[in-house]
Every structure is written in structure tokens, then in C-alpha cells.
Amino acid sequence: MVPRPAPPPSDDGSEEEVGTTLLALPDGPIEAGAAPSHTTSYIGGYPAFPPSTASSAPAAVKCGVCQEPIPLLAQVYAPLVDGENDRTVYVWACARAACKRREGSIRAFRASARNEEYVADVAAKRAEAERIAAEERAKARINPFTTKDAPTGGLFGSAQPLFGAAAANPFAAPAPAGEAAPAAAVAAPTEAVAALSIATEPVTLGPPLPAYQPAQYLATIDEYLPLPESDDEDDVDSDDDETPEMKAEWRDEGWERLLPKGVDDIFERFVRRLDSAEDGSTQVLRYDFGAVPLPYSSSSALFKKLFPGAPVRAPSSEEEEVYLADWYKPSFIPPCPRCKGKRVFEVQLVPQLINVLRPSALSTTGAAPVPAPAKNLTEDERKAELTRLAKGEGESEMEWGTIMVFSCEKDCVGVGEEWVGVEWEAVVEA
């Protein structure tokens, strides 16, 4: 079970490169009455758990502060490369004003269930790799003075798509398997496993639990980033006579004019990364299993734990660029409580999601709320509303900068809570 392999560097003259991160974008509302599935990715709405997890799926997820049910932010279907399970990650957050910025108000779960099609696929790849290795050994025995290199790549050969289906939307439900594996290569499932694989309905939650409505599908794209500008001797630039120090001073002054006072360079890096991705300006979620997350602010407690000692000032030149991966130390994150396996970064929510899931979209009926007609408040009503908000009553907009989910690397079967790290929205001083 490995993260998505990095693609080879581009040699087609392109001015962009693709990384290993997948970006998820809202892709339209889910039709009213459509049955949720654990093999579909979406934001808002109600979660769906694999049928085999009925005994362990939560009846409701409650805020760790107010102990009230909280709405789902995102459901992400993400089976691992060469994995044997359906794997779905869920993130919830309390919408109550009184619970904002408090530990336990944001929670994440993972559901993993054995998928017999994936099991057969992995077994067939293993059998094929073993067959090729056996042939190579036989050839080596026939002529011991000539050897051939062992097959390279993963143990199981070509990787299955990271998100199941090879469709345009890798978050969608997996397509039917191709050719069946040879009968001799895959043992028949036991009666217990066969019973689990019987098609049944997913376990879904619903009203009167709160939910953002309507739920919206997620589509995914690769993160294409512009390549660093190269120095071309043929280019004529008006600043050719400027020293590196003068250019750095100009750049710093320019960003001081563009960014609010007090904004740090880690936040600048975060904003640039989100804005520079081709067609990624509407991204609400970033997925990269086992990679290094993109930090939001150098002042957050989470950043200081994940990247202890990392420089937080921008370098004076590209040659001095700081690679935060060199400072990444997530060893403080507790292991999976069920299998004791290591937890690794998997998915990250970004602020654009706050603009999509607004408090006005919360509903407990399963349908999108009907907007109330505009009303001019009296002075007494306005004061009462301000008092209510000051007390932390009612729902309000979320105030996080990014939410990072770290989950079990071993993908142990069942439903359980995973570790969430939150960088809260930066408070900018005037």
C-alpha cells in the first residue's frame, strides 16, 4: 500500500509540471432523492458507510464540545493503490458559534471494507509477478553465465487507479472489474467472506441530523503547477542591472502592499500554491496519501509541531528555497488505536469549502432550506441578534484555515475515528 507514484518529469516543453496531489472541485448538486453511496465523493449531505460496517458505523457524530450532532463537511472515497479495501474518509465540523476554534469541534472517521474485486485483482497481479520471476530463475539455471535483471516496479505490477475507477472523476464509484483472474490464481472466498460481499445497501444517516444541503459531487484534477522561470540570456529585462538584494527588497515591498500587515511567509506560500494550480482556484480539498501537507500559517500550534525549527521567512533567492519536507516530523501523531499502525497524512480541506458550505445551507429535513424573505430588523431585533451572536448561540461561518486528516497507513478494516489537525483562520492585526 503505497502513495500515488510521482509522474516522470515533463520533457515536452511544457511550462507546467504535475505533482502527486489530486485537487477536488465542486461538480454540481446531487439530485434530490438520490441514494448516497460510500463509493462516491461529495461535500455536504449525509454520509454513507459500507454495508459490512453496519455494526460499527456511528448513528451520529457529535461535537466534542457541545455534544450535539454535527454536519458532514466531506466524504472522500479513496481506495489505496494495490489495496484490497473500499476506503472512505469522512470529515465533520460543528457549526455552532460557541464551539468555533475549540478542540473536538472537528472530527474525522475512516471506513474500510474488504472489496473482493480488489482482492482478486491484487492476487492476479501477485501470481503474474511470481510467474515472471519463476521464468527468470529457470532461464538463469539453464545458462548460469547470463542473467537478466529482475522485473522492476511494484511487487504487484501496474497499479490500480488511486481512487478506484479510471473514469474522469476518480472519486466516483469503481467500474466493474475487467477480465477475471485465472481460477488457479485466486482461491475461492470462504463462506464468511462471501456473505460479506453480498450486495446490500450502504448504511446511511439522515434527518433530523443537521446537514448542508444540497450535497455536491466532487470532481478531481491533477495539480499542475508552473515550472520555475529559467534565466534566458536572450530575454531583455529592464531590471537586468539590479542586484539580487535590490530585487529581493522590491519583492518584499511588493508583497507588503498586497498582503495584510502581519501575514507570514508560510501563509503567502499557502495562497500562492492554491492560486497557481491550473484550474484549481475552486479547489475545496487536496488528496495525497502519505505525502507532506501544505501548512497554512507559521503561527499555528500545528505548524510548529509538524515542522519544528523550520524557517518561516521567505528566502532572498530561488537558490535558497526552503523545502518544508526536510523539516516535516509527524512522529507525535498517535498510531491507529485498532491495529497500532502508523498514521500518515491523507487529505486536507482548504478555505474555499467555507464559501460553499454556508450556515444558510444547514437543514435538518434532508432538503435544501428555503431562503427566508429579506426583512428589515427593528432596533430591538438587531440588538437581540447581536447579543445572541456574542453569546455564541446559533450557527456561524467556519473559521479554520485548513483541516488535515491523518489516517491508518495499514488500512485496517472497520470504522473508526482518525486524527485531525486544524490550523485556525489567522487573526490579522490592523
Characteristic key phrases:
430 residues; alpha+beta; two-stranded antiparallel ribbon; 7 helices; 14 strands; disordered N terminus; PDCD2_C; Programmed cell death protein 2 C-terminal domain-containing protein
Q: Please give the alpha-carbon distance between the first and last residues.
A: 48 Å
How many strands, what sense, and barrel or not for the largest sheet? 10 strands, antiparallel, barrel
Question: Strand sequence of the main sheet, in spatial order?
Answer: 1-9-2-4-5-6-14-13-11-10
Overall tally of domains: 1
Please write the string of helix (H) and strand (E) elements. EEEEEEHHEEEHHEHEHEHEE
Average pLDDT, all residues: 78
- For the secondary structure, the number of strands is 14
GO cellular component, one term: cytoplasm
Pfam family, one: PDCD2_C
GO biological process, one term: maturation of SSU-rRNA
InterPro entries: PDCD2_C (IPR007320)
Describe this structure in a few short sentences.
Strand 13 (about 400-410) and strand 14 (about 415-425) form a beta hairpin. Helix content is about 20%, strand content about 20%.
Describe the 3D structure.
The chain is of the alpha+beta class and 430 residues long. It has one domain. The chain is 19% helix and 21% strand. It contains seven helices and 14 strands. A ten-stranded antiparallel barrel has the order 1-9-2-4-5-6-14-13-11-10. The chain has a two-stranded antiparallel ribbon with strand order 3-7. The chain starts with 15 loop residues before the first strand and ends in a 6-residue tail after the last strand. The N terminus is likely disordered.
